[in-house]
Design a protein that fits this description.
The chain is an alpha+beta fold and 537 residues long. The chain folds into four domains: 32-236, Rossmann fold (3-Layer(aba) Sandwich), CATH 3.40.50.410; 240-344, Jelly Rolls, CATH 2.60.120; 348-478, Sandwich (Immunoglobulin-like); 483-533, no CATH class. It is built from ten helices and 28 strands. It has helices at 2-15, 29-32, 49-52, 57-68, 98-107, 121-133, 172-184, 201-211, 224-234, 294-297, and strands at 18-19, 35-44, 73-80, 87-94, 154-163, 188-195, 216-218, 239-247, 251-257, 263-271, 278-283, 300-304, 307-313, 321-328, 335-344, 347-352, 366-368, 372-388, 397-404, 411-416, 422-423, 440-446, 451-458, 470-478, 483-488, 500-505, 521-524, 530-533. The strands form seven sheets. The chain has a six-stranded mixed beta sheet, sandwiched between helices. Strands 1, 16, 18, 19 and 22 form a five-stranded antiparallel beta sheet that branches. Helix 4 packs parallel to helix 9 and helix 6 (121-133) runs parallel beside helix 7 (172-184). The longest helix is centred in the N-terminal third of the chain and has 14 residues, at 2-15. It is globular and about 85 Å long.
Length: 537
């Protein structure tokens, strides 16, 4: 029945008239509503949190997450403890205005100074899953045309899962059931955060690996605000996070925004875990102090006992150029953390090493051990190439294509283990197959050790004084599986005659990354020439 419906849908697409209209999708509102993000924040409220987070920094982190949200963002909250006290603190809510943000942040107050029970991870995950199931149309596939971006609003579902404990009291079966439920919903991604030394990182890693996502480790509660900002920047392709330190008590140069970065929205966030920072001066490139001009020029400002935030949009004033800031902190002269959460038309892509699911950055990427790593990256901009008219008199759905951007000169950096930065080129020489096609290529040194490698891709090339547009990727390096081929009957291959062969993967080799793989085999002649050996099941 499902295939029959899909066939009807495809037939309808073929018969619908297309009106091709050129032009780039708008940088802000129109582009954003084509992609909606639905996030459930699961916050551990067990008794152990009284020691792990006595100042409720996790609550400030959740509130900042809400303050950063924009058009197309919907957030819910689950407070997690034991089976009887794990509950929904905030139903899924659109948080794209000052009023809606205030309402959502008030819901976090119930988690403050209220620690009770143990850590029931399965209960927390199940509540979050049930909330995401209520997202309209979330269970339906987003219609696509070959080579084009989504035609309707694309919906992404995430869980941010914070805990400081272990799965000790709740039966393992309850957690297993919750994980399997998430696996059945293949579009949900999860970001587990382990707080402190008591967090069960092995279980959190297992959840992220099985469901899809990335695990974070917070050594103490003061690291939570930064981690939540990092996760926020990972929810959409057009979001990036960069971090600075500035001295408190005087006006200093903060950072530059370059026109080539195509940034259209920036949130400047001053944070201080030990007390409330106050932004006294925020000077834009046109030398205007936005603190004095707050009402006229800002989209949004928010304060909390742990942060001060300004959000500025390119529709209000030019963002390109140098920015200055003056932050007052509890102790004059000490360093204050400032973050830039930006939105850009550029969407960074890592093509090689390739993701197992090319459209999903959170799917595994593998590279063979002891092989030089081929790195290919670039950036694209969503461009409207036409419209799909469902009926006369309507605007229809936009047909979008992500077009590669030239002149980016990307730079990659292996952050763990630490390697020297590597510039990528699109000149048609060496490992780059074609010049000026938007695919920038180079080769890193051999990966000598198996394990996880963290790779950062930045466009354009890195400049110390500028805001950095970068995305991080995890590459899993492992030995190539070893194959043993047995020929029957004589072990000889005669020209133009089929032969029966048995292929066996040697025990202990990993990883197995797909249920079915294509195996390419060659035979070396005595003269050294390689012939392809065609295999057929």
């Amino acid at each position: 029945m499902e295939s029959y419906k899909r066939a009807l849908w495809l037939a309808a697409i073929v018969m619908l008239p297309l009106l091709l209209l050129g032009g780039i999708a708008s940088a802000d509102g129109d582009q954003e509503v084509r992609e909606r993000v639905h996030v459930v924040l699961v916050v551990d409220n067990s008794e152990s949190m009284a020691d792990a987070d006595p100042k409720d920094l996790r609550i400030s982190a959740a509130r900042l997450f809400i303050d950063l949200a924009g058009v197309g963002d919907e957030i819910g909250l689950v407070t997690m403890s034991d089976a009887y006290h794990t509950e929904r603190g905030l139903e899924m809510s659109v948080v794209d205005s000052a009023t809606s943000k205030d309402i959502a942040k008030k819901a976090t107050a119930q988690a403050q100074n209220r620690w009770i029970g143990g850590t029931f991870m399965g209960a927390g995950l199940k509540h979050a899953t049930n909330m995401l199931d209520l997202v309209p149309g979330a269970a339906l596939p987003t219609p696509r045309l070959p080579g084009l971006a989504p035609q309707e609003v694309e919906r992404k579902r995430f869980i941010v899962f914070l805990t400081d404990g272990k799965q000790e009291v709740e039966p393992r079966a309850a957690l297993e059931e919750a994980i399997k439920g998430l696996q059945e919903r293949a579009d949900i991604r999860i970001f587990p955060i382990g707080l402190g030394g008591g967090a069960d990182m092995n279980t959190l890693e297992e959840i992220a690996n099985r469901v899809g996502g990335k695990t974070f480790k917070a050594n103490n509660a003061s690291e939570l605000i930064r981690i939540y900002m990092q996760i926020f920047s990972m929810l959409r392709d057009d979001r990036y996070a960069d971090f600075f330190q500035v001295p408190a008590g005087r006006e200093v140069s903060l950072a530059r925004i370059d026109p080539a970065q195509r940034i259209y929205n920036v949130s400047w966030v001053a944070t201080w875990p030990e007390g409330q920072p106050v932004i006294k001066v925020l000077r834009s490139p046109n030398r205007m102090d936005l603190v004095e001009q707050e009402r006229a020029k800002l989209r949004y400002r928010a304060t909390d006992p742990r942060y001060d935030l300004f959000t500025v949009d390119s529709k209000a004033l030019p963002l390109d150029g140098g920015w200055n800031i003056w932050v007052e902190g509890p102790i004059t002269g000490t360093a204050v953390n400032v973050a830039a959460i930006v939105r850009s038309e550029l969407r960074v892509r890592l093509f090689e090493p390739e993701a197992l699911a090319p459209t999903d950055d959170y799917s595994p990427r593998y590279w063979p051990q002891n092989k030089r790593m081929l790195v290919q990256a670039g950036a694209g901009v969503l461009t409207e190439v036409g419209r799909l008219l469902l009926q006369a008199g309507t605007t229809g759905f936009p047909l979008l294509e992500e077009k590669r951007t030239l002149g980016m000169t990307p730079e990659v950096t292996m952050t763990s283990p630490k390697w020297e930065p590597l510039g990528l080129k699109d000149d048609g020489y060496g490992y780059d197959l074609e010049s000026d096609d938007g695919y920038y290529t180079n080769v890193y040194q051999p990966t000598q050790n198996a394990g996880r490698y963290n790779l950062s891709v930045e466009v354009p090339a890195r400049y110390n004084s500028s805001v950095h547009l970068s995305k991080e990727y995890t590459i899993r390096v492992a030995p190539l599986p070893t194959l043993q081929m047995t020929l029957s009957p004589s072990g000889k291959v005669e020209p133009d005659r089929p032969v029966t062969a048995t292929l066996k993967i040697q025990p202990g080799t990993s990883p197995v990354v797909a249920e079915s793989v294509e195996i390419t085999t060659t035979v070396r002649r005595p003269d050294g020439f390689l012939d392809d050996l065609m295999l057929q099941r």
